[in-house]
Amino acid sequence: MVKTSLFNMVKLNSQKKQETENKNFRLSFLRNTAFLFLLLIVVKLFFLQVIDHEMYAKAAENRHNVFLDLLPKRGQIYFQNLKSPEETTPAALNKDIYIVFVDPKIVKDSKQDTKNLAQILAQKLELNEQDVLTKITKERSRYEVIKKRVSGDIVDELKLENLGGVYFDNEPSRFYPEKNLASQTLGYLGYNKKDLPQGYYGLEGYFNELLSGTSGYLSTEKSAGGGWITLLPRNKKSAIDGADVVLTIDRTLEYVACEALKKGVVKLQAKGGTIIIMNPKDGAVLALCNEPNFDPNNYGTVTDLSLFNNDAIFTPYEPGSVFKVITMAGALDAGKVTPDTTFVDTGMLRIGPDVIRNAGNKSYGLQNMTGVLRDSINTGAVFAAEKLGLEKFKGYVQDFGFGVLTGLELDEEVPGNINSLNNKKPIYLATASFGQGLTATPIQLISSYAAVANKGLLFKPYVISKIKYSDGHEEKTKPRLVKQVISERTARILSAMMVVVIEEGHGKAAGVKGYHIAGKTGTAQIPSPDGKYATDATNQTFIGFGPVDDPQFVMLVKYVEPKVDYAESSAVPTFGEIAKFLVQYLEIPPFN
User: Fold this and answer.
1) How far is Cα 241 from Cα 559, in angstroms, rounded to an integer?
2) CA pair distance 575, 508, nearest whole angstrom
3) Is 451:400 a contact under the CB 8 Å cutoff?
4) What's the pLDDT score for residue 65?
5) Which DSSP string do the residues of 242-286 spell out, in sequence order?
6) What is the spatial distance between Cα 531 and Cα 276, in angstroms, rounded to a whole number?
7) Per the count of CB atoms within 10 A, which of 187, 231, 474, 508 is most buried?
């Protein structure tokens, strides 16, 4: 009996001890759980009030406020009018297009036939009906874009339908009234990866920031029903509209030059061409066009992206014999030759393992330097370059602006390549003297001839006449002198030699009766990628200026692979046609 009682007591004590331990465990578990819960609350509050305070504050604020971006108007672009400087012609204008969007809640509340609404929108906007239906019936959405960049005519048609919950918001677009005219100079307005307006190529690309202006914003409060209280904006920063740009390009000259180029490309069955007209006294570009080109209103339909490039600044080429003028300018200026310096041409010249020949394998016998330009004698150009020497020749080439960017305000310019002049082998000097083995852009070539026309003064070419800012002030471009490349005396002597090219040589078709015009032809074989001249394909160029006693214009005409043998039959006649118009349009009196 005692043993049983003792056993029961031990058992009872054990049970009490176990109960106590269980109780303590539960209490400990509850304390720890409460502590962890409290810790989580503290951590959450820390993130809410410290780490993510700004985000949640904005979120809370957005429940009561509306923030709107205020978009600036893009600056417009205009051609100048040389005949009436106060008048301009639009080249790139703003035109409103629209975003069509719906508020699904209002569509639902208006109890419209959503299927019918989707059908109307799909037909007018040329969209998939089911996709539209999905958007207009979307739950918990107050803003669904149906289509962007919708024309005003389509929006007007939709407005006549009186569709509840359908809204329209205008967005800026670009209209180019002259279509293809000066398209590669203008570029186009497209959209970037964020679907925001962005200028590409030409002026639109180069001056995108200037033309775009600066966005502003407006914040205002929502009413209790979610509407906007627009009478009293809480905060506002006005947008600053983009600046307008007036070009140095004259619309009439641009049209005449581009029509002549287009006609020439067709007639000559050429792959393309370029014309530039410049004022030699300050570097202002009066006309610039290329063939082929594109319509910036429909840039999205262009499949050959090279059409966006402006060949006048983007496509360097071996210029051929037009470069002889640069060679002769250096030799004359350095006093190494005169117009009457003679040499004997045998029709060929051997330099190491290489042989240089004249075009058509012609031989001219005893010739002077004027004859070298008149008859475009390759061996004569080598003679003048060798008299000058490689280092001085290279110096003049660089001074005339080759191998570097001119700085013309267009996207995107390339510098050409004169690296062959770093090679000491005599053949590189020889070939460079008549425009082979180095490359230049049309804008570099015409700028160098402008320096010859302008008493040896090289000006930076420019295409912007003035900028009109939204606050009313204007900024006119000041012509920038780069340097005196050759002396005035050298320029006058060389110009007279170049007149002989027109009146006695291969440039007769470039002449204008009653005016002394100076110029030089160039027919250059197009090298293959390995540097060899394996085909008869040529680039044909003529550059000239006039009247020679007081030059008012300098012009470059270039054709790519025309179906004639020499520039005398391609670029020269086109130059003459436009030059005849120029002397009348610019009201240049003939000599007595």
Assistant:
1) 41
2) 11
3) yes
4) 54
5) PPEEEEEEEHHHHHHHHHHHHHHHHHHT-SEEEEEEE-TTT-BEE
6) 28
7) 187
**In the numeric block, which tokens belong to residue 2?**
């005692």
How far is it, in rounded angstroms, from Cα 572 to Cα 548?
Answer: 17
Looking at the whole model, is its pTM more than 0.85? no
- What's the pLDDT tens digit per position in 279-294? 999 999 999 999 999 9
The residue among 579, 546, 572, 547 whose CA lies nearest residue 558 is: 572
- Expressed in percent and rounded to 5, the helix, strand and coil fractions of the chain are 40, 25, 35
Candidates 363, 441, 375, 364; CA nearest to 402 is: 441
> pLDDT tens digit string along 49-77?
655 555 444 444 444 455 556 778 999 99
184, 106 contact by CB (below 8 A): no
**DSSP for 81-147?**
-SSSTT-EEEEEEEEEEEEEEE-HHHHHHTT--HHHHHHHHHHHHT--HHHHHHHHT-TT-S-EEEE
Residue of 277, 268, 289, 140 lying closest to 586 (CA atoms)? 277
Contact 117, 162 (CB under 8 A): no
Closest to 247 (Cα-Cα) out of 218, 289, 214, 219: 289
The Cα–Cα gap between 426 and 353 comes to 11
For residue 518, report the phi and psi dihedrals to the nearest 5 degrees.
-105, 145
Token pair in block for residue 421:
């002049």
User: Using an 8 Å Cβ cutoff, are 210 and 48 in contact?
Assistant: no
Q: Specify the pLDDT at position 95.
A: 87
First to last CA, the chain: 157
Tokens of 245: 């740009």
Amino acid at 354: D
Q: How many helices (H) and strands (E) does the chain have?
A: 19, 23
Tokens 């001890």 correspond to what residue?
17
Q: How far is CA 149 from CA 95, 145, 201, 395, in A?
A: 11, 11, 21, 54
